[in-house]
Amino acid sequence: MVVITAERWAELYRLEFPRLYRALLAVLRDRDRALDALHDAFVAGLRRPPAHDADLAGWLFIVAVRSARRGFRLPSLPLDLLSVKSGNDEIEALLDRMEVGRLLAGLSERQRAMVVAQFYLGLDHREIARHFGVKTGTVSATLAQAKARMRAEVRNAS
Question: Is the pTM of the predicted complex or chain greater than 0.85?
Answer without folding.
Answer: no
